[in-house]
């Protein structure tokens, strides 16, 4: 989707995809719903030209396979992509859409292997529900059902029976500094957030490191060139000071998974056990979501490891970034993370040349 001034959010990633695709014999065409010539079923695509290092416009047929990287950022864009999908309903996508955070939690709860790793989660209906969960778990997160990138997330932590610590990020990802408030002040502070019907409330897992910063882990699970699920990699993310989220876009830093776990737990055996549990959970989630929602090519999952070493599943992202691997210097993993969707697409094409007619 175009941002302001017809800019694309992930143009650097699309350039790398284009270069990798060229080596595999695939042409990568970048387009948005705004680039469709409806009368001719053609697109005015962006095509990267490696010799000149520039993007060029080219009229082309809508490609046989669609790799959907649309991030909606607002109701207008959501309606635009919905209209596109409805109008061009015969197109073949290498991934199907997943559910919002609430419906995702409901779906994952059905799986006996995954359910024990899910934090307690409810829909926001009233402040009474929110305070009830907060008194039960000491800390909670308020998250928009359709939010991405750490936008609009609030953390509430119980300090005493009548006093709470509130902090978070607003819709523009700006940090909301920590503030001590009473129970009666909570609703006033959040009165403009339109929580009803838009937010979920989630049990907070203890994620604070010794220096006061929060952390979590991003795992990337992808289909390979044989159509099989593989864990491409997993890395730690540490948020900036006074932030309740660790997203890289919000100023977080990346660290190798083993390094962060060793700093926390000290024992290599403990680290190996946690890693094994996390990788199994990742594969279980990918396989289950594909059964539930249809074909997928990659899934990013955000994991938390509590002080006892238990693995928690915080969130599922159907359009994950892979920048975390570049940030920690795992260049081989980073390149693999870029090429795997292309290798999977190539496998689909070879397996069924007329993929348009599948399903």
Automatic annotation (TrEMBL):
InterPro entries associated with the record: ATP-grasp, YheC/D
Gene3D superfamilies xref list: ATP-grasp fold, B domain (3.30.470.20)
Start and end residues of each ATP-grasp domain: 105-343
UniProt entry keywords in alphabetical sequence: ATP-binding, Nucleotide-binding
Domain of life: Bacteria
Protein name: YheC/YheD family protein
Organism: Paenibacillus agricola
Lineage: Bacteria, Bacillati, Bacillota, Bacilli, Bacillales
């Amino acid at each position: 989707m175009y941002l302001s001034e017809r800019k694309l959010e992930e143009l650097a990633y699309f350039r790398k995809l284009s270069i990798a695709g060229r080596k595999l014999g695939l042409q990568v065409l970048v387009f948005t719903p705004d680039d469709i010539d409806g009368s001719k079923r053609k697109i005015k695509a962006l095509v990267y030209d490696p010799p000149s290092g520039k993007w060029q416009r080219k009229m082309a047929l809508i490609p046989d396979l669609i790799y959907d990287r649309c991030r909606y950022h607002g109701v207008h864009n959501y309606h635009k992509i919905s209209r596109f999908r409805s109008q061009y309903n015969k197109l073949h996508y290498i991934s199907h859409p997943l559910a919002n955070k609430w419906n995702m939690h409901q779906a994952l709860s059905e799986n006996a292997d995954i359910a024990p790793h899910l934090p307690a989660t409810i829909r926001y209906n009233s402040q009474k529900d929110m305070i009830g969960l907060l008194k039960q778990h000491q800390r909670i997160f308020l998250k928009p059902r359709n939010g991405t990138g750490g936008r609009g997330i609030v953390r509430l932590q119980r300090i005493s029976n009548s006093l709470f610590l509130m902090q978070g990020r607003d819709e523009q990802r700006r940090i909301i500094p920590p503030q001590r408030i009473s129970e009666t002040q909570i609703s006033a502070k959040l009165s403009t957030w339109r929580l009803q019907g838009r937010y979920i409330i989630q049990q907070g897992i203890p994620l604070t490191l010794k220096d006061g910063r929060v952390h979590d882990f991003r795992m990337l699970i992808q289909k390979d060139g044989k159509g099989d699920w593989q864990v491409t990699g997993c890395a730690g993310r540490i948020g900036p000071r006074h932030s309740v989220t660790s997203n890289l876009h919000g100023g977080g830093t990346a660290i190798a998974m083993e390094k962060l776990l060793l700093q926390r737990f000290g024992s290599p055996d403990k680290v190996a056990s946690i890693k094994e549990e996390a990788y199994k959970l990742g594969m279980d989630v990918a396989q289950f979501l594909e059964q539930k929602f249809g074909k997928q090519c990659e899934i990013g999952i955000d994991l938390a490891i509590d002080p006892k070493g238990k693995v928690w599943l915080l969130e599922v992202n159907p359009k994950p970034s892979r920048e975390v691997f570049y940030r920690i210097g795992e260049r081989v993993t980073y390149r693999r993370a870029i090429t795997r969707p292309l290798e999977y697409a190539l496998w689909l094409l070879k397996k069924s040349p007329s993929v348009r007619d599948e399903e």
